[in-house]
Design brief:
Chains A, B: This is HTH hxlR-type domain-containing protein. Chains A, B: Keywords: DNA-binding, Transcription, Transcription regulation. Chains A, B: It comes from Pseudovibrio japonicus. 2 copies of one chain form a homodimer. Chain A is mainly alpha-helical. The first copy, chain A, is 49% helix and 12% strand. Chain A contains 6 helices and 3 strands. In chain A, strands 1-3-2 form a 3-stranded antiparallel beta sheet. Chain A is globular. Chain A binds a DNA duplex through helix 3 and helix 4.
Chain lengths: 119, 119
Amino acid sequence: MSAEDTDTPGGAFIGYKTCPVRRTLSILNGKWKPLIIYELLPGPCRFNELKRRLPGVSQRLLTAQLRALEADGIVDRKVMEVVPPHVEYSLSEKGRSLHPVLQAMEIWGENEIKNYPIS
Amino acid sequence: MSAEDTDTPGGAFIGYKTCPVRRTLSILNGKWKPLIIYELLPGPCRFNELKRRLPGVSQRLLTAQLRALEADGIVDRKVMEVVPPHVEYSLSEKGRSLHPVLQAMEIWGENEIKNYPIS
DNA sequence: GCGCCTAGTATACATAAGGGTACTGCACAC
DNA sequence: GTGTGCAGTACCCTTATGTATACTAGGCGC
C-alpha cells in the first residue's frame, strides 16, 4: 500500500483508495454486511424475511447496514407503495460480483466446522 | 443456519457453530484482522514492521488483534529472549488456509479500484 | 548517572459501532 | 376492539475502536 492515501474523513479505511483488501473491507466492514449479501445471493428478499433469516440481528442494525450497502451500490431497494408496506432488497450487479468473496468465506467455514466441530 | 446454536457468550457470532459464513466471520470480525493476515501471508514479521505496514493502526489495537488471532490459532507468536526484545509473528497452517478468502477480497478490490478509481 | 534508543506493554480516556426494546401507522382477520 | 404483520424510527446502553501517554529492561553516548 502506498502511504499517500492516508485520508479517512468518515472513519473509512485508510488506504482504501489504493489497497485492494482495504477497498473490499471498506464495503464489508459491518458485522452483518457479509451475511446480508450472502442471504441475498439466491435472490431478492423482503425486510422481515431477511430479519428472520439472520437470527441475532436487530431491526435497527439491519436497517442501518442495508442503508450502508445501498449507499455503496451493493444492494438495491425497491419500495412498493402499498399497505402493508412492501420493500424488496436485492443485490446489484456490483453486489453479485462479491459472490467469490462470500463463497471463499463459506468454503473456509465449512471446512472449519467439519474439522473442528464445537460442542 | 439452524436456530439451535443461539449461544454467544462473549459477543461472538450467533450461529458460528453451524453457519459457515458466520464461522469465518467469527475469526475475521476485527477491523484489522484480515489486513494482518494479508500482511503475514508472504512470511513472518516483527511487531513494529507489521505496524509500519499497516498505516492507521495503533499499537494497542494491533496488540489486541494479534492476541485474538493467536487465541484463534491463526497466528503464531515466537518470542526471542534477547535485548532489545524480538518477537516474530507468523501465520499458522490454519492461518495460511485463509489465503483464498484474502485473495478473493484482493481480487475484488483490485477490480473496484480499476473500474471506480477515487480522486 | 543521565537521557535516549528499541520493541513492546499497560493505563486512561474519548468516540464510533453495535445491540435491546418500545413505538408508529395502516390494513386485515377474528 | 384485539391481535397480527409490515417496515421501519426513537431512545438508551454496552462493546469496539481510536488516541495519548507512561512504563518495562538493557545498551549506548557522554
